[in-house]
């Protein structure tokens, strides 16, 4: 049996429902770009007279590097109201969306050279009075076109035409080798400031919600100029502030190492079929020698021990005194010798402050005992992970991440500027972050990209990052395609992500900033026996030349040319010698050829 609801209940239900859009109203300003870019805030954009979808003009914008060539405008809206957003677009990848308090709507397409209409809709929240609608392209995909943007629904009140005041007291400070902090005083507006925009050296501005901004990925000992403007919800922006400059600090890499380096792991604590190599017999081609491995007494103790391979397992092993003497001889030749912590079997979880402190104390004891130059972090397996909700790259909260960062900073401070710090994560812990970051949607593994906050926190102290481009599943690159290990394109795509930066979990508003070129080396197996994903000498040279010279590239085109790319890492020195030294001899000669005048 069905019952009719009382009229008063029907009326109440109708009041609670969101208002539907007025389909005849387009409340976007200059939706067809007939007045140029008026009403829009854009980067890398212009208006063109052909091709157009309607009227006489259309938008044409070109992504460059990390800049997606976004065009956006703020529109006043009503709370609890349904809006429909659409635009006509052309291009390889084009995105359309809207953001605001309680609003996050987006859609995309790859229509190519034919006009295609993108559509999405959203419902404003109970306190939403403004949304920002946007259209943008994607990394390395060439220009896109947009026309006839339509935001269908009721406007939010009288039009705001007054721009905010110019931001004051703009200051540049806290210089590191690769970053500068910019701060300013809040601006005033008749309605309210919704964002600030910071322009560096006159390029497209970066939106900021607060009154400070950190520019990263900068070059040491280099001056940069900044200007700031304030914008309101209606898209009115103040003039830019007076330009101010700042200079990054000294740094920019370990100048005691060659311009191009070869990094290799030495099986110092075990044998695995490749044969034992005495420290004095390490070939001269290797510039950085990682002693593999220091391991914990238990997973969560933080107490790291390094035990040299026993004679029963490693026939011909030298005495302790000869081992130390050989380290000194290598250092006298300009080589760096580091203790590597972790490896496949060495799970290290610094879950407590006590474990953190034990890590610092025990690692320091190893460094001091053997007179080593620093530390390599080779955490694998379940050593690192991210807790639910730990999504802020710059402010991690998971104890194993926070405590590792603190321990490394303490060691760096203890040993000073000469301390060499390297990291050797797997692609799963770094480049996978382009798609997944910790325990997110679709049941992502909490370990996904969990190295990223560690790398980010130590980026000014990091000597080398050499991600293991092997033992890896397919990884999506900045081109939106999956790349498989074993060929030059995999190394180009994986390295390009480190040097160009990439959006974390596909969110362009949450970027992993690029590292300096001198901080990055490509990690490889030294022979087919050393690991899955062995790459031939010719393919490695092709990858390095593509990245460092921009020549010989395959289907993947990097976002830039990186002449400062530092070198190559191999697992391992032992496997290279076992394979007739093909890796060290072939690649040393090629790298030296690249640095020759």
TrEMBL record:
It is an enzyme of class 3 (hydrolase). Residues 166-251 form the Fibronectin type-III domain. The keyword Hydrolase applies. Residues 260-594 form the GH18 domain. GO terms for molecular function: hydrolase activity. Belongs to the glycosyl hydrolase 18 family. Chitinase class II subfamily. PANTHER family: ENDOCHITINASE. This is chitinase.
